[in-house]
Design brief:
231 residues; alpha+beta; 3 domains; 4-stranded antiparallel sheet; 7 helices; 9 strands; 28% helix; 21% strand; elongated
Length: 231
Amino acid sequence: MRRIDVKLGDRYNRLTIIDEVAGVGKSKRRRFLCGCSCGNKKEINLDLLMNGTTKSCGCLNDELKRARSKHGLSSHKTYFKLKNMRQRCNDKRDKGYKNYGGRGITVCEEWSGDVGLENFYNWAISNGYEEGLTIDRIDNDKGYCPANCRWVDMSFQGANKRIASVNTSGFIGVFYIELLKKWRAQVQYRGKIIFKEYYKDKREGALGRDKFIIENNLPHTLSRLTKKEEL
């Protein structure tokens, strides 16, 4: 296995490498003495530095705990929603990473860092958060940020998916039916198809689908229904 090139002064989050030290016990894992931005020093295994498991000497966790305690948010459900959001976008070990961070989905700067939780909580409360709702990205190909997120119930979040590879129309919910030589536009809600119409043109189908959604006040916007072209 190729030896990883590590230099004195290399920085990993809040930690800067000062010197290489002996591993603990029988472990062959490389270990380094690091200086933290807070002024403390700590010995840390290289793999924990490189994969982001250890970001500080411990001061970062202490700061986050104090922030959560200060605002009384550590037990609020928005805290766990933000935690899960960050994890699937940033942690390669998370089972959902490949569908989020693995394809470029990120959490905005406003909802990151030491004040991220307070900012997220304030946004959530001001934008219709209620217990039982889930956060939904309007454009499924963009990240988590105030402009691209809203609260919906679980029955509708499933509608906001990337276009399936078998869908050749470029529009969500519009499929070509070979037998009829027409495009079928449909809307599914709570496991039932509540709209289904056939069109000669796929764009007409997308417009018809959007019109039904808007007229029935369903929780969609035009921008989330089309992906490859504008209506």
